[in-house]
Amino acid sequence: MATERLILRRFRASDAPALAAYRSDPEVARYQSWDAPFPIERARVAVRNFAASSPAAAGWFQYAIELAAEQRLIGDVAVRLHDNLLQGEIGFTLATAYQRRGFATEAVGAVLDRLFRVQGLHKVTGECDARNIRSAALMERLGFRREGLLRQQTYIKGEWTDDLLYGLLSTEWTGR
After folding, report:
1. How would you classify the pairing of strands 59-67 and 72-81?
2. Local structure of 102: helix, strand or coil
């Protein structure tokens, strides 16, 4: 799948060093489930697992975000399809050097378009740490509605954190 500046594709083995590099950045890892540094061997295992999954099957699928002009991996978009294949959850990660340039909005928008228009999903949700205002703003820019706040929901990196819940219906996406 391609946008004006990006290629969203399946991960390949050669992506492991770039994945390890951006996931090792403490700013990138701050609100994520992993800790920095993210060792290369862990990245190799992750890339193998990402490559073995299917975007049309229930469970997680990770799209690699490649900057077309540089043929460089700059991030990823994760999608978890529910067993009914009509609902999903989305997450995203972008290397620090490529943030605040519209790449995440472009990538997530392309994935949402595929989920709603091609795969026929009814609803996609997103969740983020309530302190992660940039992720919340990205979801809101794409039309997600804030559906809830779960207070002290997640124990991560030694502290309890609040989670924001977002949802987007297919009719909201296709009607924009």
Report:
1. antiparallel
2. coil
Whether residue 39 is preceded by a cis peptide bond, meaning omega within 30 degrees of 0, is no
Q: What is the pLDDT of residues 30-88, one digit of tens each?
A: 999 999 999 999 999 999 999 999 999 999 999 999 999 999 999 999 999 999 999 99
In angstroms, how far apart are the furthest CA atoms of the chain? 44
Domain regions of the chain by residue span: 6-174
| CA 14 to the chain's CA centroid | 20
Q: Which CATH number fits domain 6-174: 3.40.630.30, 3.30.70.120, 3.20.20.370, 3.40.50.720?
A: 3.40.630.30
- How many angstroms separate the Cα of 14 from the Cα of each of 71, 90, 98? 12, 24, 20
| Nearest Cα to Cα of residue 124 among 149, 101, 143, 151 | 143
Q: Identify which of 117, 115, 127 has the alpha carbon closest to the alpha carbon of residue 88.
A: 115
Three-state DSSP class for residue 129: strand
Looking at residues 1-23, what average pLDDT do you find?
98
Question: Among 80, 81, 82, 87, which residue's Cα sits nearest to residue 123?
Answer: 87
Report the C-alpha gap between 157 and 67 in whole angstroms: 31
